[in-house]
Amino acid sequence: MGVVGAGGMGLNFALRCTKFNEARVIAIADVPEVCKAYKALAEGKLDDFLNYRPHLRRWVAEPRIAKALEILGKQLDPSKIYSDYHELADDPDVEGVYVATPNIYHAPVSIAMLNAGKHVLCEKPMATCVAECEKMVKAAKNSGKILQIGFQNRFSEDAQFVRSLIASGLLGRIYKTKSYGIHVNSGPGGWFTKKRLAGGGALIDMGVHAIDMTRFLLGEPKAEKVYAKVETRFGNYDVDDFAVVMIEFENGCTSIVEAGWWNTYSDGPEAATQVFGEKGYARIYPVEV
Q: Which has the least CB within 10 A, 19, 34, 73, 129?
């Protein structure tokens, strides 16, 4: 495996891979300063790695994290730390790539990897506009490789259970859902709050999880109408931090999605969803029927 964008999400993915025999991260692509850190890690120089990434010192104090970093360092190849993602794309030893760059680069990086014959797991949001998403899908079809977006919540036991409950018809026809993607009294910084890099704010950062969960539970219906109120209320940046969306689906269900950063309250954690049927009710996170 290779990772493009080895910041917080990229490092977390690489560390999680150390738990499995089926996948290991051997290559990294990022900006030169980050590459210096990972080259040091690959050479067994943990202190040098932490000198380049001092914000990780407190995190690494936890024994299991330190152990995972040690394993990752042994798995990384010092010759496969690239400051140009095209070089990683050309690496024949890399079979799949995790893309965790700022959103604006999701499409070009994913397409380059697919065109090079590599499977791609791309972080959400898929891209910053529909046209880029369509190009990614086309590249995946042409390459015959897998393109998957990082909507991990649909794989949870809770989501699988409630989806099966809906499909069984026990809840009757679903007429309404409510789903949440809100950071309560917190929010990101850095590139997440810059439109030129992120493409948007809380709605495409957190709201996409809620929208994906809604569609997953309902069996992937197509949207027919969308209404939205999207605002910037809590910070001095050029992206949204408050959004309420209403979606009318082809199956007759009306879905409400709430997204935000720094909001004072949420009716549930990330991707929590309430399902209202003509014969019954269910929700996930936590499961309630």
A: 19
